[in-house]
Amino acid sequence: MRSIQAWRTIGRSRLPPSRYSPASARPTVNTIGFVSIAPDGALKEQLRPWSLGGAPTEVLVCEYDLPTAEAVLADISAVLQPLAFRYETIVVADGGEALIDTGDGPVLYAPRIWADLGEEERRHPRAVPIRYVFDTQEISALAARLGWRRRL
Predict the structure, then answer these.
(1) pLDDT tops 70 at residue 116
(2) Rounded to two decimals, what is the model's pTM?
(3) CA 32 to CA 30: how far, in whole Å?
């Protein structure tokens, strides 16, 4: 019977089978951790000036595709309770399009679109970034479970 040697490419180096064990290289449940992310609660304060009128203000949630826009909308609507807004998603190829002829309310940009905006568009008074942040309690619990040391 002929033996086949398997080599694993890691980065640019190739390790021989004697130094690489696929079973030991796989993450185990004890080495994998998950933490939640959510829109930064500061978003509520950024939008408060638009919520002071009588009728609910329309808030546009801008994304490149509809499924992601709907997911972001679900995330932010939970954070923005009880502010009175009407939410709409807008799907664009260019984030700057959402600022043209779309009313007076804020345009909330998902992180990947905000990263693609130019400086002038970012300074627009209606342009508001949606920042996602990690749950700090979950990060601390994960760090303790995995034995991470605090960096100074």
Answers:
(1) yes
(2) 0.72
(3) 6
In 3D space, the residue among 114, 118, 61 whose CA is nearest the CA of residue 90 turns out to be: 61
SS3 36: coil
- Tokens for 106? 């804020």
- Angstrom CA distances, 64 to 24, 85, 105, 129, stand at 40, 22, 20, 15
Dig out the tokens for 79 from the structure.
């954070």
For 86, the domain range is 40-134
User: How high is the pLDDT of residue 12?
Assistant: 43
Does residue 88 contact residue 60 with C-beta atoms inside 8 Å? Answer: yes
CB 27 within 8 A of CB 36: no
CA distances, 56 to each of 48, 49, 53, 85, 95 (Å): 12, 12, 7, 5, 24
The pLDDT value given to residue 28: 65
Q: Does residue 26 lie within any of the structural domains?
A: no
Looking at the domain assignment, is residue 52 inside a domain? yes
In a domain, 14, yes or no: no
Mean pLDDT throughout 76-99?
A: 87
pLDDT of residue 142: 87
Residues 6+ apart with CB under 8 A from 138: 35, 36
